[in-house]
Specification:
Blueprint (H helix, E strand, L loop, with lengths): L8 E5 L6 H4 L6 E6 L1 H15 L5 E6 L6 H13 L4 E6 L1 H14 L3 E5 L11 E5 L5 E6 L6 E5 H5 L3 H24 L11 H26 L5 H21 L3 H9 L10 H15 L4 H14 L14 H11 L15 H19 L5
Parallel strand pairs: 1-8, 2-3, 2-4, 4-5, 5-8
Antiparallel strand pairs: 6-7
Helix pairs in contact: 3-4, 6-7, 6-8, 6-10, 7-8, 9-10, 9-12, 10-11, 10-13, 12-13
The structure holds zinc ion.
Zinc ion binds next to helix 10.
Amino acid sequence: MKILKSPGKYLQGRDLLEHFAEYTQGIGDRFLVILSANGMKRTGAVLKRSVQNTEITLDFAEFAGECTRAKIEAYARRCKESSITAVVGIGGGKILDTAKGVAHFAEIPVVIVPTVCSTDSPCSSLSVMYDEQGVFDAYLFLDTCPDIVMVDTGVIARAPSRFLAAGMGDAMATWFEARACLRSGSPNQVGGLPTIAGTELAALCWKYLQENGLAAKLAAERGVCTAALENIIEVNTYLSSVGFESGGLAAAHGIQKGCTAIPELHRVLHGELVAFCTIVQLVLENAPRAELLSVLDFCKSVGLPVCFSDMGYQPEADAIRACAEKACRPGSTVYHLDAALTPERVADALMAADAIGTEYTNGLFQ
Ligand SMILES: [Zn+2]
């Protein structure tokens, strides 16, 4: 069976939050709004203004810390006790994942409003839960993607540009991983084979990143919104999200998970690490040099790492070995690239990718 999953409605535009009431019409009149103290400062006033003179009431819940199962269950109880009809998550990945989980347990619709576009989580049907110390706990697989995803491009343009670049790293991997799944006949992340649409949405990620990635990063550095930035926001938030779930994941994300075994890499953003792990996947595929160079050129142009020293880390054989072992755990998506992959080959590819990225930086790999 082939399957594609996507959000019910995707909205993107400047100052969209001014019209929050209008665009969420029909999904409820009492919203639980989960956001951080900073998110409240950035969006609270405009949200309150948008529901003035309407039937809608907003209950604000201030979020801090991690997306945990306990928090999700507590908010879901609050929804039932206060007759909340829909939940809204405004912020980064942790808040959005919490809101999706709350909607799932409270059995009500969810509206997702990302304030940065550093990962491909906003449109996905997955929540990642941690403990309060930030250690991975479990995945929560949801029946559906969010009902409404609302991206205010003015808000995103004012976020630090490093987050935008990280989101581009995550989106770049989307294409190479979907292509690997197609070649090997592997399943996607929503329990079926990829449809034409799933794979093509992933391909559009790489096309638009090459065309608009650098211009978008430069616009974000100045805090301004341009057509190029608009395109990259859609790439990072929608195309990458639907593309990875419905196109499938392979070695880049499998190896990125393995890299969490290296404590020195914990301060590196998810999408930054995924960008480097895409180069590792290309080494495993023995990709043509021109393709490898196009990826290296792109990463360098937007400030994504191409070697370990770009991430402030000096590789050690034992740590790389531990990373490769973790990447090759049973059920890992690395096997979507090649069912016969071994920790030895992954460890070798990590070291080789590091060497290629280092020599590229020195001008010797071209
Ligand atoms: Zn990712």
